[in-house]
Amino acid sequence: MRCWLRLALALVSTWFVTIETVGQASSQLRLITDHSVLKAGGVATVAIEFKIPSGWHNYWRNPSALGGVGFAPKMEWTLPTGVTAGPIQWPIPQHLADPAGDAPAYTGTVWLLVPLNFSSSIPEGDLKLSGKVSWQECEHECVRGDTNLTVSIRIGPTEVPSFESGRFAVARSLLPTVATDVKATAHWLPPIGTDSRPLVIDWETGATRGDFIPYENKQLPLDGKPEAATQVNGKLRLTHVVDANDRGWPSIADGLLIEESSNGIRRGFEVHLPITESAVPKAGIPSAKFSLAELVPMLGLAFLGGVILNIMPCVLPVLALKILGFVRQAGSDPRQVRNLGLVYGLGVLTSFACLGAAALAVQAAGSLAGWSTALQNSQFRVILCVLLLLVALNLFGVFEVNLSGAAMDRIGQVARWMFALPLRWMSDSRRQAAGAQPHGGIESAEEGPAGAFFNGVLAAVLATPCTAPMLGTAIGFAFTQPPVVLLLIFLTVGLGLASPFILLCWHPEWLKWLPKPGGWMVRFKTAMGFPILGTCVWIFWFTATRMGSAGVLWMGLFLVVISAVAWVWGEFEQRGGGSPQAIGVAALLLAGGYFGLLEGQLDWRHPVGTKVPKLAWQRWSPAAIEASRKSGHPVLVDFTADNCLNCQLNKRTSIEIDSTIGQLKNHGFEVFEADYTDADPQIAAELQRHGRRGVPLVLVYSKALDRAPIELPTILTPQIVQQALNQAVK
Predict the structure, then answer these.
(1) Do 388 and 519 contact (CB within 8 A), yes or no?
(2) Cα 38 to Cα 61: distance, rounded to the nearest angstrom
(3) Which of 268, 273, 275, 557 has CB 3.0 to 4.6 Å from 92, enough for a Cys bridge?
């Protein structure tokens, strides 16, 4: 339920962002340099100054770090040749409440510092430094703003500080310190429910208040809800409840530790803390609890879904016939009709109890037996997504899942005979004891309680190929709960299916209000497919996006293959009278999709926690590359984009493979990624400088600053990459 609440909050926040163009951001911005004159080859610092109106705030570099959403300020530079900008240096943020959750943010006047590197070949003269700033500011509503800023600096023989250079010392004092002696440890506690896990940081500090604010991380984010700091054994304990991630729980806590003294002085430290696993739950941290508030709405959905099953094409045609059969059988005795209705309901409930027990047995036999964490398992979600897609395709009529009438009759006759035997034996025994003649056959027993019971069993069997829209949510919830709750939800679905039969047995005159079977049923069945498809898309959204940058592509293609298999089966095998060729094509498609996409590209069978980033990709910028090379590291840069299939294939086949990774680590390479999925003028300029109009582009730099980078071809092989790496370290 919490994950649905967060989704709703995110949607509300997104709506605020969508309508924000009705307002105008009112922060005042300007660019300020710490030098009015700079020598060629020097480094200047530029401040992006925000004067934020009272009551409003804008965001730190990772707006979602504390469980909220937002948009951090972004600068798109337009700089002269020979000038490169480094990353923004972010001051220590405040912890503010936000419409969509807590957020690290700024109020009042804030300076974002950016170092600019000037080439030694720049001639003397005036230079114009400009850029476009985009940001979001919020009060009770949020508005976005963007503006172009410009400042000038002169390249001369001597350096001259600017008029406001003194303020830069104050701005730098507000930046966090890179921690080398912070005495802090981090460990995980057991998960809470299905969607979160507490990260605990114990910090030896004299402060009584503090915060941990994680840095952004696309692969393994630590975003979540912080809890109030407490004192435990003389240490400050910070608890950060992290949102679930099917790629595993991070093993490193990267972010800011912020302490606040009693007089309000705040200090921040950049930390890189290893996270250990906790052997036992710590006192004071709640474990997963059964929630009645979550169960009651799900029981309502399960019951309503069971009721709706009665008007699905699988069940409705037999509804009136069953009730009329009961009425004819009981003659004029209404009590007998009611009893038969109750026995029929017992048959339905028995069938759904068996279905629930089968579900328990299947899960207990496999890796999905962990009820509290089922939805955290990527395998479970992939299977659930495929099943929902097949249900939707079935409702759309792409293929059919049903038992033929003849098969149902044969099953019914055998089962009724089996149920009737003990009843007939008991009835004959009673008759013989009373001196009466025994029955000559089983027909009358079939029409009695045994027949009514198995009519309920048949109704449940008929209903299983159909899925009402509410059932997807209720059954999905059931598979994340303890066994008793799962059985209760299955029984509630059965109760919903049986209730109209029981009511009509108690009030046969209501039969005249029953809708007549017709063409409307087919249209209704098709309409019911769209909510199921929507649920499938929702599960696909938070499953595929956690399988790496190409997860959406490969899982989406796999679902397309599954859809094609279903269509081939329905069109040629079911409606085409049977075709060995169709079966062969369907089998080849299924095998290719499974082994080529699900196994080959997604590697979906890895258990939770083993899928970790293969390389520690850093964000590209010219300044970052230069700094890395100056520190003695050779560098590999991948200019890529999510919508570039060739880029993804290069990474999977030639870069993120064991042999290349081993070579990168052995020679001390640092790897940088330039993501060109969205427009980026700086990346565009770099591509143009290398004669490329787009991605992919892979560059390999030597640590020697005077050597030009090695440009790799568009299509890579492991040999091409490894030869370039060897050449760079010679």
Answers:
(1) no
(2) 29
(3) 268
Banded model confidence at residue 691, pLDDT cuts 50, 70, 90: confident
- Say how far apart CA 628 and CA 642 lie, in whole Å: 25
With beta carbons less than 8 A apart as the criterion, state whether 682 and 646 touch. no
Is the preceding omega at residue 696 within 30 degrees of 0, hence cis? yes
Lowest mean per-residue pLDDT among 242-251, 327-336, 337-346, 540-549:
327-336
Mean pLDDT of the region 132-151: 86
The full set of domain ranges for the chain reads: 2-175, 184-277, 293-377+401-431+438-528, 618-728
CA 262 to chain centre: 40
The lowest-confidence range among 227-241, 366-380, 567-581 is 366-380
Q: Round the CA-based radius of gyration of the chain to a whole number and report it.
A: 33
Class of the domain covering 618-728: alpha beta
Q: Which CATH class is domain 2-175?
A: mainly beta
Model confidence at 589: pLDDT above 90:
no
Strand bridging mode 618-619 / 670-675: parallel
Residue 94: its pLDDT value, please? Answer: 92
132 forms beta bridges with 76, 148
C-alpha separations of 94 from 30, 97, 226, 238, 579 in Å? 22, 10, 13, 16, 67
Q: Tell me what the mean pLDDT of segment 636-643 comes to.
A: 84
How far is residue 614's CA from residue 653's CA, in Å, rounded to a whole number? 13
